[in-house]
Each structure stands twice: as C-alpha cells, then as structure tokens.
Specification:
Elements (H helix, E strand, L loop, with lengths): L1 H18 L14 H12 L3 E2 H8 L3 H13 L3 E5 L7 E5 L1 H22 L4 H18 L2
Protein name: Transcriptional regulator, MarR family
InterPro entries: HTH_MarR-typ, MarR/SlyA-like, WH-like_DNA-bd_sf, WH_DNA-bd_sf
GO molecular function: DNA-binding transcription factor activity
C-alpha cells in the first residue's frame, strides 16, 4: 500500500504542478492565487454566495474565506452586498470583470488540456476519465 500511496501522491503533485497558475502567463490570471481562482469559481456558481458558504466549499475558515474575498474585491473581481433575504448575511458575487477573468482562465486551461488530450488515444481517455471520477468520488466519502 505504501508504494501505491507514494505513486498517487507523486502523480497528483505532478499534475497540480504542471497545471498550476505559475505555468501560465501571469497576465492570464489577473494576479490571482489558485485559492482566489477557486473562490471566484465557487461564487460564480451561485447568485448569492455567503461567506460561510464559500468557506465550506473551499474547506477554509470563515476568516480565511474573508481574506480571499478581500483580495478579489480589491482587484475588482468580486463584490459584497447584503442578502435581500437576510440583511445580516453578506453575499458575494463576481463582477463583470471577474466573470471575464474566469472565462479567460478557463479558455487557457481548456486549450492546454486539448493539447495534452490529443496525444492520448480515445480508449485511454475514457479510462483516465473513469479513474479520475472514481478518485474524486473517493475523496468525498
């Protein structure tokens, strides 16, 4: 088991490194860290994403989520407002600039993935997709 664990850790580490934002042209990421990008993606999926919701989805504390949102807000990529349903709740949503930034980041990531996937034959692509789905599913249990 330890041998396989080492391989899993090594492969995941390599994948994260090779797809990290440091690999891309920094102008594409609008000065965002990976945590910033993930937070912006999460808040773009909901109309009124609370700070607590962001923290839960990212596995951060509420204060950690607040720091990420502070950075996004300073860059003009997200904005806070009070919830219409409950004025005590702070909601976060992407700005038009934030949505444009995400679109650009996603286009770059898809273009990079297209270059890689083209080098893999179709049956292996399906095996990889199935394996990745299984792996992600196991992390949620």
């Amino acid at each position: 088991m330890a041998e396989n664990t080492d391989r899993f850790v090594g492969y995941i580490d390599d994948i994260v490194w090779r797809f990290g934002i440091h690999v891309q042209d920094n102008s594409c990421c609008h000065g965002m860290s990976y945590a910033d990008i993930r937070a912006l993606k999460e808040i773009s999926l909901e109309c009124d994403c609370s700070m607590q919701g962001i923290a839960q989805k990212l596995g951060f504390t509420k204060s950690g989520a607040t720091r990420v949102v502070d950075r996004l807000e300073k860059k003009g990529l997200a904005e806070r407002r009070r919830s219409e349903a409950d004025g005590r709740v702070c909601c976060v949503s992407p700005t038009a600039k934030g949505r444009d930034a995400l679109d650009e980041i996603n286009r770059n990531a898809h273009a990079r993935m297209d270059e890689i996937v083209e080098k893999i034959d179709e049956p292996m692509r399906q095996i990889i997709l199935t394996a990745l789905e299984s792996f992600i599913s196991a992390t949620n249990k």
